[in-house]
Design a protein that fits this description.
heterodimer, A: alpha/beta, Rossmann fold, 2 domains, six-stranded mixed β-sheet, three-stranded antiparallel β-sheet, about 35% helix, globular, B: mainly alpha, MetI-like fold, Aliphatic sulfonates import ATP-binding protein SsuB (chain A), ABC_transporter-like_ATP-bd (chain A), ABC_transporter-like_CS (chain A), nucleotide-binding (chain A), ATP hydrolysis activity (chain A)
């Protein structure tokens, strides 16, 4: 791939040693193109989340190389959206969104202005003064997305961000995410175990099977957006991916 | 309706208590010097005010209270935070804590007098020791109990140093637990005030000892009730402050 924004080569990660050695990821190669929405699917425990944690610097790989080619002026090349929104309950919505901007040299007023713009982008401008406990699950997750976008990252890392939501809210947020990526041109690395979700939002789907986690299949999806949900071509791809996943897990 | 009923019951209970208290010495069941009836308390209170003894004693005790509480709670929070954040520090101090922790605050009286003399600073020291451990353990536990996921959020947004972790996450997240400890300390410090003043530092405790040695038990009761009133005042103010600080909670 020419000029990838993320270039992962031979990445391995293991905990422990000897008998109790637990290999989570094994010599994984993955490149992500600028502006691409890459979705990683796989069953629980194959190291999908671990991969994101390594990129975020929250876990240290045992072997391999991870290169991030962010814009040089980008202070925070990557921002993370977790499965549970993980808002800070003692901060109002607006100050949660402004959280990552503290220490950026912006004044408080400038931080709040940026936060307000991000809240508008996720459609929550009216809730700026609320406390997190006053929000619904879907609203909390939108705030988490706004918080991640506020630091103007080159890459948005999303770790099963919609999996804890009801299906109606989930589909709403999938549409929202597609609109936001179209508007901002962000590169997105999105982890899920929901194949329908994957084929709806992805430019490319990578299947990780394991353990230890390694890439088992890869599908590019060039269908135009917005993609109608029960589209026959999408369902075809989803079926193909499902077959691939069950074949892999049968092998293991 | 239920509120009115429970308020009426509470008032009736208080009245019954006062009536019984009044009746026992009046009927000659107990010597009034041993149990002064409540009707003698307001006149005793007025006498203490006229003499100027009451305001002086109360102000003096309050200054010990505030200074001792601030010193003890301040040290308790500071060391509790360090101990909650650093396993190394906790391990290093584990046996020292075990050694010092069981010593009651009052056991420090001899040293307080030797180190500070019969001076206000001695009372402040006793009070500070009395509240230190409560606040220390409350703070340490609260920091230990902070959700690791939130700490990870700070890391994910680039706040990785211990000071940033403390300011951005640990301190605000631990505030509810620290406040619980502080509220307990608020009551504990009043107990220590009396104890600390009994050995002669001017204040409410000293005045009570003087009065009891003269068998002026009505005056003793005046100060007992004074302390109950002051504690009630502080506790209500603290609860209001706590409610405001924790307004983010559901």
């Amino acid at each position: 791939m020419p000029d990838p924004i993320i270039d992962i080569r031979g990445l391995s990660l293991a905990y422990g040693a000897g008998e109790s050695r637990n290999v989570v990821l094994e010599s994984l190669d993955l490149a992500v193109a600028r502006g691409e929405v890459l979705v990683i699917v796989g069953e629980s425990g194959v190291g999908k989340s671990t991969l994101l944690r390594v990129l975020m610097g929250l876990s240290r790989p045992s072997d391999g190389r991870v290169a991030i080619h962010a814009r040089p002026e980008c202070r925070t090349p990557m921002a993370m959206v977790f499965q549970d929104a993980r808002l800070l309950p003692w901060r109002r919505v607006i100050d949660n969104v402004a959280f990552g901007l503290e220490g950026s040299g912006l004044t408080r007023a400038a931080r709040r202005e940026r936060a307000r713009a991000m809240l508008a982008l996720v459609g929550l401008a009216d809730l700026a003064g609320r406390w997190p406990h006053q929000l619904s699950g879907g609203q909390r997750q939108r705030v988490a997305i706004a918080r991640a976008l506020a630091v103007e990252p080159d890459v948005l890392l999303m770790d099963e961000p919609f999996s804890a939501l009801d299906s109606f809210t989930r589909e709403g947020l999938q549409d929202e995410l597609q609109r936001i990526t179209a508007e901002t041109g962000k590169t997105v690395l999105f982890v899920t175990h929901d194949i329908d979700e994957a084929v709806t939002i992805a430019d490319r789907v990578v299947v990780i099977a394991g353990p230890p986690g390694r890439i088992a299949a890869e599908v590019r999806i060039d269908l135009p957006r917005p993609r109608p949900r029960r589209d026959a071509a999408l369902q075809d791809i989803a079926r193909q991916l499902r077959a691939e996943l069950s074949r892999r897990s049968a092998e293991l | 309706m239920r509120l009115i009923r429970s308020t009426a019951l509470a008032a009736a209970g208080l009245l019954a208590f006062l009536a019984l208290w009044e009746a026992v010495p009046r009927l000659g069941l107990v010597n009034p010097a041993f149990l002064p009836p409540p009707s003698t308390i307001p006149p005793a209170f007025l006498r203490e005010i006229e003499l100027g003894v009451w305001p002086e004693a109360v102000l003096s005790s309050l200054s010990h209270y505030v200074a001792g509480l601030a010193a003890g709670a301040g040290a308790g929070i500071a060391l509790g935070l360090v101990s909650g954040m650093s396993r190394g520090f906790e391990a290093f101090t584990a046996w020292v804590v075990r050694l010092l922790r069981p010593i009651p605050g009052l056991a420090w009286v001899p040293f307080a007098i030797i180190w500070f003399g019969v001076e206000p600073s001695a009372a402040v020291f006793i009070i500070a020791v009395g509240v230190f451990w409560i606040v220390f353990f409350a703070t340490q536990g609260a920091v230990r109990g902070v959700d690791r996921d939130l700490v990870e959020v700070a890391q994910a947004f680039g706040f990785r140093g211990p000071l940033q972790r403390l300011v951005k996450i640990l301190l605000p997240a631990a505030t509810p637990g620290i406040l619980v400890g502080l509220r307990t300390a608020l009551g504990q410090a009043w107990m220590a005030v009396v104890a600390a003043e009994i050995f002669g530092v001017p204040g409410v405790g000293q005045r009570m000892m003087q009065a009891s040695s003269l068998l002026s038990t009505d005056i003793v009761v005046v100060y007992m009730l004074t302390m109950a009133g002051l504690y009630g005042l502080f506790d209500s103010a603290f609860v209001a402050l706590q409610g405001w600080l924790l307004r983010w909670r559901a």
